[in-house]
Amino acid sequence: MTHPTLNLSPLKAADRWRPAELAFWLLPVLGYFVFPENLVLLTQIAITALFCLSLDLILGYAGIVSLGHAAFFGVGAYVAGLLAAHGFGEPLMGLGVAAVISALLGFVTSFLVLRGADLTRLMVTLGVAMMLYELANKLTAITGGVDGLQGMEMQPIFGQFRFDLVGKTAYWYAIAVLFILFWVARKLVHSPFGLSLKGIRLNVGRMPAIGAPVNARLSAVYTLGAAYAGVAGALMAQTTQFVALDVLAFNRSAELLLILVLGGSGCLYGAVIGTIVFMSAHHVLSDMNPEYWQFWLGALLLLIVLFARDGVMGGLRRLERLISRVKGGTAP
Q: Does the pTM of the predicted model rise above 0.90?
């Protein structure tokens, strides 16, 4: 009796790095030299991109809708912040512990999230985030409450690179972590595991028939997404050396969902590009018009949704197909 084997050649082809991707990852180097006075903003963009990437793993690939993803971001931030405030300010150790604690929280709550459909999942994820927010608000002796967690002292990275006031070390630190975790996520989504996640998102009813453990796969990717979000929160705490209560706030989760829809879900790069577009527009418009910048930002988002239905990445894909058709039509 023969068992069907999975043809891995399309996955291997998809896993190859394209020239456009390599050029894209040269942009952080370019940004360092072109915007040397805005390294703090660029660092925040990198951290938010990682946070958005964590949501893309669970929403764009597994189809798990969440309005409380800030719970894991906030846990990671407080874990790294508390470690640094109590004399354990080694950055990489802080990232690792934050990832583990956030992953544990994600694993435990995944069983609640997977019990219902989309609306139920929204309620569960939102409820978890609200509980943690109120818990952090009440435990002022530990978290600082509304005053925030202060007194953090970060040690040099690898004992060599100190965090400076200009933000050079923080910038390259955030970019390096973002690239490494993006590479891991890219390998994951181009693997049989990632292919099964897409199958679950498209037709969850058929996947058990081909032997795919649906709940186990969803729980695994939800745990991984929580770990990614925890690392992003830890990066934020380490680079700013301050943790405010709003790391667990609802508006952070809602804004993250907006960024992912703006960039395009289910392709990884949509999370990064959406973050760049949103935060750059936020920065420019708030400087141009401090009173009514939200109006212009909303107008920009509506235009992108109208003309790029699948986000920025969807618009770029359609443009690429159009250019290919034009070239094919004019070819001799």
A: yes
